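Design request, tokens follow.
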């Protein structure tokens, strides 16, 4: 056994460790359900003192053929001439040729983080006896990749082209006699609504929501907030809206939509009463604000995204242009233009209907937190409205007594999501055990 032990000891190797590198930015593909990762295998000569010499291409997966050369040069510029921790044999540094596999997101649906996440697996293989590989002949293309979107009909086009196509489609569906365009700063609103007062009302809503959202979440806002919506299309007829949104891949039953990559919002002014139009505009704009300002580098949990949209949509805009949330007990507002009353209790009623249908006591909060219901796939009709109402109720509870001044725990939860903490663990850290929150929610619902 002694000779075998000596042989194993003599072959004790430690692989080198290369320095951390930056990864290429990912392109956005709106219709993808899952992220697509690129895989690039490079070999490099590493001297005994750790100096990285020649870096050569070996293989790749998922990269477009015309971009391989540019990507290889992107990594080569960072690695060649740099320093790595050298390989070791029996504790002594040795020169080697090292093969490393780089993996990073290539395409993803927004609003995911566009850079390489720390938990993505990556790996390398140690080969001491490989000969130095010649630099391959690769067609180099120095032009940076252009962000693309995949259209519902399967084409891949630039953001600018897709926006122009949608603009032309929207205008073709609208009544030519009433079609007009309103510009206000960075916002362009295209509509065929003939009533000037209704157009002014919708424009006031679109302008007020970002201001109030930034005010409510001031401790979390950047110094110069981005503009979440630059293009708004308001159709007089709901059937025209449905036809337009089909070009976005949005279900025809949706009352409105927000497309983050294009910063585009669509809705209809012909909902039967102006309050409903106002509610849809606020709901979709809050989705834009959550994506662009509140959680710009991570995906908001579905319940939080829909819950915040519903909380803001249930407010009113007073004569000064500011949002008034009121209290849950007295949250009944009269639309002065239509005479229609809208109450928060209608949302409470939806929650109780869903409880009667699914027996949700003890399961409502866990179902929301662990994404057991998907509005796009699992729910329809009445259940969809009850899901939104339940998301509203949970968000309203966690915001505290006054939604205009979110509770410290709620702000800390948003900070945790921004920092990359898993949504479920961040929830229990900031709000306590999920079962306890569920009990508190049902208690609050009885009080409301």
């Amino acid at each position: 056994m002694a000779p075998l032990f000596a042989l194993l000891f003599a072959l004790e190797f430690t692989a080198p460790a290369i320095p951390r590198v930056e990864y290429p930015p990912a392109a956005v593909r709106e219709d993808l359900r899952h992220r697509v990762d690129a895989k690039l295998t490079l070999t490099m000569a590493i001297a005994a003192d750790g100096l990285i010499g020649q870096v050569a291409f070996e293989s790749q997966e998922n990269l477009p053929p015309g971009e391989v050369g540019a990507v290889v040069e992107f990594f080569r510029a960072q690695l060649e001439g740099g320093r790595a921790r050298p390989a070791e044999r029996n504790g002594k540094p040795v020169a080697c040729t090292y093969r490393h596999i780089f993996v990073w997101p290539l395409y993803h649906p927004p609003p995911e983080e566009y850079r390489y996440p720390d938990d993505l697996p990556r790996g390398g293989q140690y080969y001491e006896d490989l000969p130095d590989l010649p630099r391959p002949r690769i067609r180099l293309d120095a032009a940076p990749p252009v962000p693309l979107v995949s259209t519902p009909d399967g084409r891949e086009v630039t953001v600018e082209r897709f926006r122009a196509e949608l603009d032309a489609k929207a205008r073709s569906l609208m009544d030519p006699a009433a079609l007009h365009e309103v510009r206000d700063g960075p916002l362009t609103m295209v509509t065929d609504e003939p009533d000037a007062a209704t157009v002014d009302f919708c424009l006031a809503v679109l302008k007020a929501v970002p201001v109030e959202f930034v005010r409510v979440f001031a401790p979390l806002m950047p110094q110069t907030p981005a503009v979440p919506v630059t293009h708004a299309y308001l159709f007089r007829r709901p059937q025209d809206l449905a036809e337009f949104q089909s070009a976005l891949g949005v279900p025809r039953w949706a009352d409105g939509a927000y497309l983050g990559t294009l910063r585009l919002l669509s809705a209809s002014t012909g909902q039967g009463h102006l309050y409903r139009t106002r509610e849809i505009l606020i709901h979709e704009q809050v989705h834009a604000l959550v994506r662009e300002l509140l959680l710009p580098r991570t995906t908001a949990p579905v319940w939080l995204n829909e819950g915040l949209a519903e909380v803001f949509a249930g407010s009113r805009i007073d004569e000064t242009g500011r949002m008034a949330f009121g209290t849950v007990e007295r949250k009944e507002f009269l639309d002065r233009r239509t005479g229609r009353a809208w109450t928060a209790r209608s949302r409470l009623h939806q929650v109780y209907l869903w409880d009667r249908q699914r027996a949700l006591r003890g399961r409502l909060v866990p179902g929301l937190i662990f994404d057991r219901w998907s509005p796009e796939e699992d729910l329809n009709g009445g259940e969809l409205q009850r899901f939104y109402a339940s998301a509203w109720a949970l968000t309203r509870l966690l915001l505290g007594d006054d939604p205009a001044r979110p509770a410290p725990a709620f702000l800390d939860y948003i900070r945790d999501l921004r920092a990359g903490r898993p949504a479920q663990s961040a929830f229990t850290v900031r709000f306590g055990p999920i079962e306890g929150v569920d009990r508190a929610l049902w208690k609050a619902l009885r009080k409301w």
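Comment from the thread starter after seeing the answer: thanks! DSSP finds 13 helices and 19 strands in the chain.
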